[in-house]
Amino acid sequence: MFEFHITATEGRARCGIFSTPHGDLKTPLFAPVGTQATVKALTPDQLESLGATLILANTYHLYLRPGDEVVAELRGLHRFMAWPHPILTDSGGFQVFSLAQTRQVDDDGVTFKSHIDGSTHRFTPEKSIRIQENLGADIIMAFDECADPYDRPYLERAVERTHRWAERCLAAKTRTDQALFGIVQGGIYPDLREASAHFIASLPFPGIAIGGLSVGETKEEMLATLDLTVPLLPEGKPRYLMGVGTPEDLIEGIRRGVDIFDCVLPTRLARHRAAFSPQGRLNMMNARFARDERPIDETCDCYTCRHFSRAYIRHLINAREFLAHTLLSIHNLRALVRLVEEIRAMIIEGTFEQNVPTLLARWAGNAAREEK
Amino acid sequence: MFEFHITATEGRARCGIFSTPHGDLKTPLFAPVGTQATVKALTPDQLESLGATLILANTYHLYLRPGDEVVAELRGLHRFMAWPHPILTDSGGFQVFSLAQTRQVDDDGVTFKSHIDGSTHRFTPEKSIRIQENLGADIIMAFDECADPYDRPYLERAVERTHRWAERCLAAKTRTDQALFGIVQGGIYPDLREASAHFIASLPFPGIAIGGLSVGETKEEMLATLDLTVPLLPEGKPRYLMGVGTPEDLIEGIRRGVDIFDCVLPTRLARHRAAFSPQGRLNMMNARFARDERPIDETCDCYTCRHFSRAYIRHLINAREFLAHTLLSIHNLRALVRLVEEIRAMIIEGTFEQNVPTLLARWAGNAAREEK
């Protein structure tokens, strides 16, 4: 269980297979986010059809609602959300630091108020592991502190705490059918990142995540951090870049040796009526689509693009129909899953690096904030 | 095209096959309602999987948004909504009389204001047919006036107008690949219903609908009206009871010789978080489902019941997740489609009538307004 075999490499990019109790994961891969044990507006069948293999769920949300003990009583997350394939849960740390109200951090853990009802809760490394063991994902994450990437004094303390918490998570873990990944922190500071990478790499984690990116730093800073960090990580363990990203981020991350990505962007864009396309991010409410018989992306093989016109999707949005969310989520998720599938095939053929300029050009318009 | 073959009968109940340009329809059947060219929260794939064969779409809604001419330009409703099977459009009459604001009826037609933006529009029989020809459904409906079922003086005028409009619809129709159904009106008054049935039956419609029911009259009045009306209709044409109904209504309607039903109830209940079940209508928000591992209905073969617990569905509702609508809609629609499939098999075996008490008892709790 949890063996990682690298099957092809090209430069720092690599393809691998990570074995989990719910099946083998081919890397690189993009994992859709199912915050509340559901990838918004999609059934598990639809997720399978669009090529999803690993789904992420949020410990913070599921702890608050419906409660990790309820999920355990219902025989775990796989059964609860009817996803028989691998699942990853985060540690709850990121949401505690981004969503919860009036949190207080100390060396032992974090006390916070629920964003739902204001009730007070406390997470510690041990508590996070217990919750994640109740949820029962295949991959679970060490409890870490995600700090402002530019606040050096705070980051120094946060990195130190993250390291102590990593050790405590390893000690607290009891299930053998879950892979616990450590998390490298350190903001944008090379020396902090380097120290963190060395420390986390020295612990017996079967996989390592790079956290604290895509949280406000520039794209250049993110890529420089990857350039520095990834070479310090063991070759033989999967590397997971948390909360990233855009099509360009996936291309640039895989080039730098990242294996696993997750991001809410595709489903969040869907709720904002936007679609990834080679013409840039499309605002599907735009009146110019009212009679446009073309699919969102003529090169896309997703269910949405094989069946529906831009005009129909715009109609659904105008008419405030749920189906718009579903169809746009299918398309946006498939766009990223397919991009990563294509890159995987290129790495196996040894043609990825020569295709990078084409891939970047194709997806260039999808990182910008502006919608077309 | 539009041949109707009766393949089995039991008492007044019958099984048949109605041929349309988009495939044969086995009757009796229950048609899900796709008001705005989408059955709310479901993809065409999901509709196929739950056994839907005929989908209804609303002329009034599609005329206003996106516009019937837009749909025609996009090559018709089948392609627009990606439903390659038969579609039925209503005439717009019912919505004009129930939804539109400040309408004025005269013998030529109806002037009304859009419920969306208050703009003024006019429907006549000719206009309704032109819109329905633009939409391009397989079965289209005569433009009729649906009046208060107890207002006899108004009903007398409305029935007379409905008859004149039926003749004008037949005259206005130009497409040969659409079956135009006439509609019997007359409220709860036997003499009006009888006159209307005779008149509509005398016209060359390939199918006949019974309108103006399930609009405020009692269940007994509805069944008495069916008892009176159906025997006056030609044996060899399909009979469509519009806007009906509950599981019990389907059982009672089929017993009385009805072939086709449609109703928004299953999808509307889904939006109100309620589910059909042999234990009665379930309010899925109920706290008693919080740890309930059972499916909504242990005897149901739908995607929802095969994969998800009541606890999960309650969680989705609590967490305000779209997927709750989708899963409940699948279940509620499948419940009615499956009920009608079961009755069809019973009619073929000649065992329907003996099973009626069991069927009625099984679904008894699902007509009541109260939810459990």
Query: Runs of chain A with pLDDT <50, length 5+?
Result: none
List the domain count of chain A as a whole number: 2
**What's the β-strand tally of chain A?**
16
Main sheet: strands, sense, barrel of chain A:
8 strands, parallel
The helix content of chain A, as a percent range, equals 40-55%
Structural class of chain A, by secondary structure, is alpha/beta
Largest interface: A-B, 40 and 40 residues
- The fourth-level CATH homologous superfamily of the largest domain in chain A is Queuine tRNA-ribosyltransferase-like
CATH T-level topology of the largest domain in chain A: TIM Barrel
**End-to-end C-alpha gap of chain A:** 46 Å
Strand order of the largest sheet of chain A: 4-14-13-12-11-10-6-5
Name of the CATH architecture of the largest domain in chain A? Alpha-Beta Barrel
Rg of chain A, please?
20 Å
Q: What share of residues are in beta strands of chain A? A: 15-25%
Helix count, DSSP H or I runs of 4 or more residues of chain A? 15
CATH uppermost class of the largest domain in chain A? Alpha Beta
Describe the global form of chain A: globular
What does this protein look like?
2 copies of one chain form a homodimer. The first copy, chain A, is α/β, with parallel strands linked by helices. The first copy, chain A, folds into 2 domains: 4-262, TIM Barrel; 270-366, no CATH class. Helix content of chain A is 41%, strand content 17%. Chain A has helices spanning 44-49, 59-64, 68-73, 77-80, 93-98, 125-135, 152-172, 190-202, 219-229, 247-255, 265-271, 303-307, 310-318, 323-349, 352-362; strands at 4-10, 13-20, 23-27, 29-31, 55-57, 87-89, 101-105, 110-113, 120-123, 139-141, 179-184, 207-210, 239-241, 260-262, 274-275, 282-283. In chain A, the strands form 4 sheets. In chain A, strands 4-14-13-12-11-10-6-5 form an 8-stranded parallel sheet. A 3-stranded antiparallel sheet of chain A has the order 1-2-3. The mean pLDDT of chain A is 95. The A-B interface holds A 36-38, 40-46, 61, 65-66, 70, 73-75, 80-82, 290-291, 293, 303, 307-309, 311-312, 314-316, 318-319, 321-323, 325-327 and B 36-38, 40-46, 61, 65-66, 70, 73-75, 80-82, 290-291, 293, 303, 307-309, 311-312, 314-316, 318-319, 321-323, 325-327.
